[in-house]
Amino acid sequence: MNALVKQTKRRAFMILLFFIFSIGFLIYRIGYIKYAYGEEYEEKAVMQMLNTEKIILPSRGNIVDRNYHDLVLSSVVYNVILDPNVLLEQISEEEKEKTITTLSQILSISQETLNERISNNPNSRYEVIVKHIESDIAQKIKENDLKGVWLEEDTTRNYLKNDFAAALIGFVNQDKQAQYGVEQQYNKYLSGVVGRIFPMLKEGKYVIEETIPAQKGDTIVLTIDETIQHFAEMALKKAVEEHNPKNASVIIMDPNTGEVLAMATYPTFNPNKYNDLSEFIGEDTWNQLSNEEKLEKLNEVWRNYNISDTYEPGSTFKPILVAAALEENIISVEDTYNCEGHKTIYGQTIKCWKTSGHGEQTLEEALANSCNVAMMDIAEKMGSDVFYHYQKLFGFGEVTGIDLPGEAKGILYDADDLKPVELATSSFGQSFTVTPIQILNGFAAVINGGNLMQPYVVKQIVSENGTEIKEMKPVLKRKVISKETSQILRNYLESVVNNGTGKKAKVDGYRIGGKTGTAEKLPRGEDKYVLSFIGFAPVEDPQVILLVILDETEYYSEGSGAAAPVAKEIFQNILPYMGIEASAEEDEEENTDVEIPDYVGLELLEVDMDLTIKGLNYEIIGEGNTIKEQFPNPGTKVPKGTTIKLYVTQE
To answer: Can you give the pLDDT at residue 200?
Structure first.
């Protein structure tokens, strides 16, 4: 027994001696390493800490209208991050259960889902559970002091008025990339400056943490007026509901500076849900589309129709032709033109919209009646070289330089390719293409005294503290016609609204000028038209000019002047808002009766324009494009404003 005890004590002593020797050796080894390599290891540790720099993302700058009304803001949100390694290895089961249960309740995520994320990624330190939760929800998570979960600060873009001016503003996608519109064009100003948290050496040995705060992006002040934009979108929405066009747009601009006051398009989208069109085309319809079809539709609505799409301008080009011919003394205000309803050029017969002919007309009447034959006569006298020169002078075939991405140039014939037939069709706005912003800008030069301006949508860039960084000034690109020629055209274009094809845009008490346009799309003969109207006010001193486009609206079902009433509604709203006072007494139209012509056998385009000029309304009965019967009968005299019934057939 004593021998066993002695043996046990001896073993315990040997073990104790071993531990003492081991501890002594470790102390010696640590001391040796400290003495021999201490500085080297300390330096490595410090360098490792110095390489742990963190980035602070800046808040994106705001976008406001010209009156500093907020349109786009960035707000602080939080991403909820799980640390599976901590939850599985470093805390108790009770603490883990508390984290899972509490998060499930706050975030409305099942406990099974959370547990699955943890178990599938046991070594992960960063698992994003939910993105972009609001501050109030984040606060609930903070109050519960949960282990293995933390909140990552982030920002999100808020488009306060949803689809308001969406094509102009653009959007920021889920990867923080600015796309389209002002967001993309002015991204370098809106992005701000990234901040950093990084360690620094103090006295060569100690590491302290230094922070360079992020700098918020600059504020972009648009030329857009929120109220004018609202009136434009309201009128456009009403027109879309009535006419169901493929595309539609409105641009409102200050003709003297090039400042865009409103820019609206259809179809549109909500930048807050930039990749989801269900609220516009219906959830069922959207969900039935394939991914390719969805992407195609998204690309269509993201693209700004007003600057990226081209079309044949039709009769809205005619004032530019007349202005050029007057400026070059090729024609004079005393000239007259005889329209027989068509003109034969090199064996090819080209019709006027009024196939029965306008007869003898002055230059002013030819423009008011939108006579194609008169325009062909003018272009023939002008010749292809001068015609092409003025096309380029007025900015066609080149970008306007508007401060938005994706601007198209349009397509023109080269001067050498403007043969007699091409010159004739080009004279009334067919066979070449423009963008909406191009034709509006060129038209503005006709009525503003002859100055071709560079349109723009951003007025000012301001820093977070209110300091002005950049102010955009009006840019005169070139002088295109004289003030005298411009004055003549303003008066002629007033006649278009008072007595011609633009009567539907007339606003009592205001002197308004303008021009309608009806352009048949390619391929011809399929009854697809672009209907447009460009108007300005007041005639004596133009302060505002606008363009309305209804693309692929069948004129025979809505009338070739369908765009003019949209302009009238906008003018009625924005002219008083802009402080533009009525400049003329309300015209008292003569109560003379109008004799109804024989329309049987004519096409609706011709009849529509003729009735508009005569101050008569009409109702379409049946389907088709050719008049087969009318009521009242030809030769009947009726008061202005009477509705004529037109029975149509499809030939």
So the answer is: 58
